[in-house]
Structure formats: structure tokens, C-alpha cells
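Human:
Class, as today's exercise, you are to examine the entry below, and be ready to discuss the fold:
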Amino acid sequence: MSGVFLAHHLDHSGTLNMPARSRTAARRARNASLILGLYALLGGVISFTGWAADLPRLTDWNGGGISIQPNGSIAAFTSGIAILLLEFGYRRIAAVCGVVVAAIGATVIYQYVSGTDLHIDTLLMFGREWGRGGVLFVGRMGPPGAISWTIIGVACVIASLFSSGWVRLRS
């Protein structure tokens, strides 16, 4: 996780003792984490708004006729929230967000592997007829997306569990 260092960088008074180059690298990594977390959050919110407001252009960013599915947009903004929460030290809430993201991906993987339709893919399509191009099942993200969201969710959970032995760099 960015912006964190091993506890051995602390001196006896508990203050962070590290070279200026390391502090600069840590600040850059933290900034990148914040920017990318915000990007995922905003991208997911914008895409989901496209579904809710019947604005297909907000779900098909490059105009190629393939829209992000509603479950994918929820996974995007929830993972963005998890990354931001991790950066601000809210590990438990970030873990919950990670579980939600992993569950979204895992349910889709389960449906593909088992051949079962859980009837959850179209719940958030708001009855829209558009956004069905390039998908194997209406409202369901593809297997690569499902695997990716599962891994991202698990990574958020793991990051939230193992930060107790780490210390944050303060600007």
C-alpha cells in the first residue's frame, strides 16, 4: 500500500526517521493512490449515473457501443471508496467495501462457472434496452472484469488487515 513504511523507520520517540528521497517517494505514492482512488470513485459514480438517468454516453466513454454494466460501475466506485478509506486510515470500513467488490466479482464468476443465473445482473439496468452490446449476458460483466473485481476486492481486504504494523507518513 502506498504512503506507508515499515515500523523500523521510527526512532525511539516514535517519529518517522527516513531520508528526504524516501519521504518524497512516499508522498508521491500516497498522492497517486489518492488520485487513482478518486478516479475510480468518480468513474463509477458517473457510469452508474448514466444508467440511472438514462444517459448512455456516460456508460460508454469512448463511444464504441460497449457500456460498463451497472454492477461493474458499482464495483468501480466501491473500490475507489475502499482505496480512499485505506489512505485515510479507515481500515474496517475499507474492508467492508473490499468484501462488497469481491462479492460482486465472485457472484459473476460463480454464474459463469456453474451456468446458473442468479437473476441479479439486470436488477440495476433500470429497464434500459441500450448497453447490451458486447456482453455475453444482459447486465453481466464479462469474465475478465469479474476476475479483476474479485482480485481488487480481495486486495482491499488484505490491505486493510495488515496495516497495523505499518506507520503512515505525515506531510
User: Anything to note?
Assistant: Confidence is low (pLDDT under 50) at residues 1-8. The beta strands are 4-6, 166-168. The chain is about 55% helix and 5% strand. The longest helix spans residues 20-52.
